[in-house]
Amino acid sequence: MARRHRLIRVSPSAVWDVLADGHRYAEWVVGTSRSEPVRGTWPHRDAAIRFQIRLGPLRLANETVVRHCEEGATLELEAHAGVLGTARIAIELREWGEHCLVIVDEHPLRGAGGTLHNVGFDALIQLRHRTMLARLARLCENSAGRHAGGTREAPHLVPVKSAGTPAKGPGHA
Q: Model-level pTM?
């Protein structure tokens, strides 16, 4: 089982807004080039998204189905990947101060992925999740910055004393 987490500097509701938009699935899911809702109302139970994976000139159409949804908190998906089989992907959102801790848990269910599942396979999924969570964080944080009028608070910079230059100001000898 591959489990990974990331702190995203927006509220859980801002992360949910991205997860709940079936058209944005391809923007944060690694390996997916295009997505569109095809059944039901995403992300409600049994709703589905069709997505496309590009492998060189090849384009493979696959589907992800919502198996469980607790709006704003949990989204459990079953991704169908053709001959590779299916995988369960659970995404949990936890309030962490004013931010959101996102926990992703994925494991193969059926097909070749389930049969060949091992520690090496989990390591590859971990790498995929690292990139996927970085994409999700970028989308959420950029969207939050735009909704706040495009201004974001500048990071607090602390002056660093360079070697050979005496520091000036109160509290410095």
A: 0.77
